[in-house]
Model the fold of this input.
Amino acid sequence: MSWYEPDPKQSLERIVDVAGNSRGRVIDVGGGQSFLVDRLLETGFPHVAVLDISQTAINATKARLGDRASQVEWIVADITQRDSLGEFDVWHDRAVFHFITDPEDRTHYVELLKRSLPIGGHFVVGTFARGGPDKCSGLPICQYDAATMQAELGPSFEPVECSEYLHTTPTGKPQQFFFGTYKRVP
Ligand SMILES: C[S@@+](CC[C@H](N)C(=O)[O-])C[C@H]1O[C@@H](n2cnc3c(N)ncnc32)[C@H](O)[C@@H]1O
Done:
């Protein structure tokens, strides 16, 4: 359990853009205590899953949602150790992929991502960017830009929109972020 985003505007806009009117199934990997799940339910997404390694973070989010928690699929798991998750139309990950510093774990993650997204599905990812922090919650991270993220994802993912922006933490600290939206292609 660590920091989370109280207003996940950037993530929500990207998910809504690619999901279109049909909405569909969304998974927030490393959702933690983010308010993204609240916003997705309010926006009318019928199937929302939240995965996190921390049972404490999941419990806190469930408690915050109250009755609405029963509308969500909750998964407590280490994403680098899972072999299957079912199918989703959109896989969102903000500030989890950058924690995965072992190349074998990243390969495992990308293989699971490919199995979980049908052709035409989308991957929305946010990480610290080059020039941003080199640690997150005291742990080492990998920084990304459009080229290095594409190198990790390989040819099964086509970029839809990649950009960088300056995020300001609640304590006023600026952090350079990379955000990418990718389409799963054959
Ligand atoms: C920095 S927080 C970001 C939370 C949220 N995505 C946001 O942007 O507000 C990272 C989250 O990823 C979770 N996490 C870290 N490593 C993970 C892993 N290997 N598998 C699943 N969740 C993980 C943490 O418990 C934490 O909730």
User: Anything to note?
Assistant: The chain has one domain: 23-184. The first strand starts at residue 25 and ends at 29. The mean pLDDT is 94.
